[in-house]
């Protein structure tokens, strides 16, 4: 059974850092398309970054140079290192995975399995 469990969210001041974790169960991490998404109150869920089975990544423009996706295959865990956080980064952050073949893209529709989310709040 596929399960994704996020952790690491919290409250920080602008300019601070957080590292989110997504522990994956039921499959091998570095084989499929995975991603981090976020959803702020009243807004659509948007893609932050995706990584495919070959390690290729794609970031949304607003986080380039500040966020970094990585994975620990031994722990079967995906990470999102977030630096230079801004108030507009405040959102619930979700990790997701999909096992279908095809391009790994920053689209909510691309992903079938989702975690429960972890809240990130950045104050000014």
Description:
0% of the residues lie in helices and 49% in strands. The chain has no helices and eleven strands. It has strands at residues 3-7, 10-13, 18-25, 33-39, 46-51, 57-59, 67-72, 77-82, 91-98, 113-114, 118-123. The radius of gyration is 13 Å and the shape is globular.
Radius of gyration: 13 Å
Structural class, from helix and strand content? mainly beta
List SSEs in N-to-C order.
EEEEEEEEEEE
First CA to last CA: what distance? 41 Å
Count of DSSP E strands?
A: 11
Shape: globular
How many H/I helices? 0
- Low-pLDDT stretches are none
Biggest β-sheet, characterized? 7 strands, mixed
The helix content is under 10%
How big a fraction of the residues is strand? over 45%
- Average per-residue pLDDT, rounded, comes to 96
Topology diagram in text:
Blueprint (H helix, E strand, L loop, with lengths): L2 E5 L2 E4 L4 E8 L7 E7 L6 E6 L5 E3 L7 E6 L4 E6 L8 E8 L14 E2 L3 E6 L1
Parallel strand pairs: 2-11
Antiparallel strand pairs: 1-3, 3-8, 4-5, 4-9, 5-6, 7-8, 9-10, 9-11
Fill in the keyword field for this structure.
124 residues, mainly beta, seven-stranded mixed sheet, four-stranded antiparallel sheet, 11 strands, 0% helix
Please provide a brief summary of the model.
The protein is 0% helix and 49% strand.
